[in-house]
Amino acid sequence: MSELRHDPIQKRWVIIASDRGKRPIDFKQENIKKELNFCPFCKGSEAKTPNTISDILGSDNQWRVRTVPNKYPALKIEGELDRKAEGIFDVVNGIGAHEVIIESPNHDDDITLMSYENVQKILIMYRNRLNDLKKDSRFKYILIFKNHGVAAGASLEHPHSQIIATPITPRTVSAELQSAKEHFLLKERCIFCDIINQELKENKRIIYQDNQYVVMMPFASRFPFEMMIAPMPKKHSHDFSESTDADLYNLAVVLKDTLSKLKKGLNDPAYNFLIHTAPNRNSNKRGNLDWNTIERDFHWHIEIIPRLTKKAGFEWGTGFYINPTPPEEAAEYLKKIKL
Amino acid sequence: MSELRHDPIQKRWVIIASDRGKRPIDFKQENIKKELNFCPFCKGSEAKTPNTISDILGSDNQWRVRTVPNKYPALKIEGELDRKAEGIFDVVNGIGAHEVIIESPNHDDDITLMSYENVQKILIMYRNRLNDLKKDSRFKYILIFKNHGVAAGASLEHPHSQIIATPITPRTVSAELQSAKEHFLLKERCIFCDIINQELKENKRIIYQDNQYVVMMPFASRFPFEMMIAPMPKKHSHDFSESTDADLYNLAVVLKDTLSKLKKGLNDPAYNFLIHTAPNRNSNKRGNLDWNTIERDFHWHIEIIPRLTKKAGFEWGTGFYINPTPPEEAAEYLKKIKL
Fold first, then answer.
1. What ranges in chain B are assigned the alpha helix state H?
2. Whose CA is closest to A144, among A240, A56, A230, A32?
3. Residue B134 phi/psi, 5° resolution?
4. Contact A5/B219, CB-based, under 8 Å?
5. Most buried residue, A59, A227, B208, B297, by most Cβ within 10 Å?
6. Quick one: DSSP state of residue B311?
7. Substitution target from A3, A14, A184 for chain B, most B beta carbons within 10 A
């Protein structure tokens, strides 16, 4: 069984996922690639995956997007949460959910190749899974992310995203929640709205804007071509899962077009994207999160992280990043890409 | 000129190193490897590097270890520190030092192939450069690290380490300083000593111990085979730069043997190591660091991070790690490797 372990110095949680089966000796053979001779995510192979949790059909009554449990989950859904001390350390047993969202029945498909309607179906699936998993009060946070390309950690080629529901709130999200709260208590404004307004005014790092969403490169980008998609300040929203189908159609247009620019401008680089949204309110009634102002102080967003540079020990060991490409230059370059 | 930019939400600093010359278009050609037809770090090519800052000679009066300025520095030594606001953001100009420590005159050398005396010379160079750079009150922190292998971010094969002196204290080190301080104020004990004592007693994650140093895998290891080398509790020390030559000979034995086990046990994996030591006291007289108890509350250590797994978006986006190998199993495996 997996467990979550807490580092009392860095105040950092780690999932020790012993069920994922990396015995020490396995690393000796790391370069021998275990290729499957079939793809379990392709249309027709549905029996090779665990049972469908949810699917969205097309007009032909065939599935377009399908969610299944991860066959090698980092966290498992069965059992009671058990929090305990181990001397100076803290441990939580590995309760959670780990699901795979298969984005298309076609192996060679890609968000950049799909119709906006099919991209919208992926986003609707994200929202629906979020809302379903939130009912489980054991889960403090539900994270949706996508790894595209081997350099981004994708182990299967077939286009897919993942959902991990965890019994703790990830540190990066906690830090955002904390900063947002502090800013709000001082100023009664959302820090994300303040930043987006400043960026819109300066217009040096904005890739795209419409009535509803903005795409920009963060001022302190850690990575070349790092991007953020967020609701515009006048559409401020703390929770992705409150998006309507119509919202998600508009977001599908923005997401597909942004990824298409990245693909065209940089030869289809590997990338990750992640949705940062509010934690699960159903689980935090007795937790340390203050919910009073979260609707006004937090602002959901998607982080897109292209994997163009190798991060070295300096970054891992210091939390201090070196980015060789100023976001202004990257933004200017990407804005000019015509689709 | 480079600059340091602050993210007010994550409270994270990033070096935007525009001088390192990654124009957006460069990423399109990322896979075309620019091979040099000579190695600037080899014996005989001394004129191809910037001027020597410091060297350590062998008994034949030839250099064994040599420090030069980095030809493509992330931060530059010339100029006055300038801290300013840019709307909601904070910016510091890119003042700092970025040096390369060439660990041997021989291209194919490696710490695991050197005599203990030569490894000691590298560690003496680390200490001496630390002490020299500390005289500069512009530098809050001096970080020493090594990237071994392409997967760890090494851009040149010739064995070398790097030093970066920064006008801010890196976030990971700040977090450690903060936790150590809190623990000490409550308990009047060093948190690192407490953890090491617990580990010594449990003896499940200890790789090696002698009178002076311990090598162990952290309870909440983020990466398979992650290791920490630290002074034993009875040799508690907050500052690597106070090590004597004799200390550094003993440390050379531990470091070489640990890296040799890693190399033999896992087929020479890529790795990073970093020294976490106390910040520069000369620069923090008016800073926010409290120096009253640092000698007793902080404990220097070396982090060794093998690069056996690809970190995916989940880790970058959440600060929440999935480690597929329990450190107890990794420790058991590595302990058994005979050199």
1. 116-133, 171-187, 191-202, 245-265, 294-297, 313-318, 327-335
2. A240
3. -65, -20
4. yes
5. A227
6. -
7. A14
d(CA B173, CA B169): 7
ipTM attached to this prediction: 0.89
Q: A310 pLDDT band (50/70/90 cuts)?
A: confident
The answer to whether residues A132 and A99 touch, using CB atoms and an 8 Å cutoff, is no
Hey, is the C-beta of A145 within 8 angstroms of any chain B C-beta? yes
Note whether residue A36 is domain-resident: no
- Cα separation, A229 vs B285, whole angstroms: 41
**For the purposes of burial, counting CB atoms within 10 Å of the CB of B324, is it exposed (0-12), middle (13-18) or buried (19 or more)?**
buried
Contacts A183 to B, Cβ<8 Å: 8
Rg (CA), chain B: 20
Helix (H, G, I), strand (E, B) or coil at B276: strand
Look-up: residue for tokens 């904005």? A206
Task: Give residue B257's domain range.
Answer: 3-311+319-335
B160 is catalytic: yes
Instruction: Evaluate whether residue A34 is within a structural domain.
Output: no
Beta bridge partners of B65: B56
* Segment (H or E) for B236: none
- Residue in this structure with the two tokens 């690393």, named with its chain if needed: A27
What CATH number is attached to the domain comprising B270? 3.30.428.10
- Please give the Cα distance from A276 to B326 (Å, whole number): 28
- C-alpha torsion sign, points A235, A241, A246, A250: positive
SS3 state at B281: helix
- Nearest alpha carbon to residue A264 among B319, B27, B56: B27
Give the pLDDT of residue B286: 54
Short-list A49, A270, A309, A277, CA closest to A147? A270
Integer Cα distance of A42 and A39 in angstroms: 6
Interface test with A, best of B13, B27, B84, B91 (most A CBs within 10 A): B27
Q: Does a structural domain hold residue A68?
A: yes
Work out the percent of chain B whose per-residue pLDDT is above 90.
Answer: 74
Q: Are B7 and B14 in contact (CB under 8 A)?
A: yes
The structural domain count of chain B equals 1
Quick check: is A35 in a domain?
no
